[in-house]
Amino acid sequence: MSPAARRALAALAAVPLLTGALSACGYGSQKDSNTSPARARAVSGEKLSADSVRIGYFPNLTHATALVGDQEGLIQKELGGTKLRATTFNAGPSEIEALNAGSIDIGWIGPSPAINGYVKSKGGNLRIVSGSASGGVKLVVDPKKITSPEDVKGKRIATPQKGNTQDVAFLNWIASQGWKTDPRSGKGDVSVVRTDNKVTPDAFKSGSVDGAWVPEPTASKLVAEGGKVLLDESSLWPDGKFVITNVVVSQKFLAKHPDVVEAVLRGSVRTNAWIAAHPDEAKASANAALKKLGGSALPADVLDPAWQSIRTTDDPLATTLDAQAEHAVAAGLLDKPDLTGIYDLTLLNKVLKAEGKPPVDAAKLGRQ
Fold it and tell me: Which helix (H) or strand (E) covers residue 215, if one does?
């Protein structure tokens, strides 16, 4: 057996099958406490109501707004004399834990951990205050084994974590095909193999899995290994849009320092506008940030398609977050949650109005 195969099989054996309907990342995944130290940028100008603001995000292209906004100093510019301190996380559990503990004030994070953090605190911990990114999730398969959606039946398909956003989406797609798979064990007409994104390329290369429903840049890494995109999840959503990253804030920090939150959101909105106006420069900036944070940049054959499939957005696409929660309930991974009040888009809409942009909607899930 090759070293790659041994690594893949060992990793698959180590993937935990978790029992709680809710846990810190996604709807049923374990925490990952790996973080990078906080970094502060040089400041200038008048200080706001806080000396500093601590933000968190992933060194991942789906967090492009934070990557580029921090790398280019666009968010710090809006904060003036208030210091931006950034910490990066490898997974949602540790970021939600940091927000709960008061170690960070604002975070870029996926819909599943945002829902989970809100539900577990009975609505008392966080608010979603902005969108950040849409798309960037694909079903990539081995073209020698799978040439059509029908061929997925009977195959082994990887998802990042039990009950995480991509896992729920894949389970929902399986159900839409009329197939049955147990959401907890992953066994059934399709075998769902919960595999860390870092390990999935080795598992795919060794043949331990026949495909994967994964976010970027993992999807493009699989294509670089000979995989083929069978389905882009964007094709399953109205207008091709669905939330993959939101901006959340500690309710305590929001109440105490609304001017700081507003400044961060202004930086986010202006970063997204800069990314849209300068896509190639922004792509290079994001890759430079990834190199700085992780020690290596993405090669062009991975970076280019991955970047192309992600869209930054100020709109939190609230209806799609609600739909994702409904999919998790239908799969049996989540008790029906009350998400009323999970959004507070007041400051975002204030910023958007000042920027000459239309307001965004909370789909009846806004703060009453």
Answer: strand 211-215
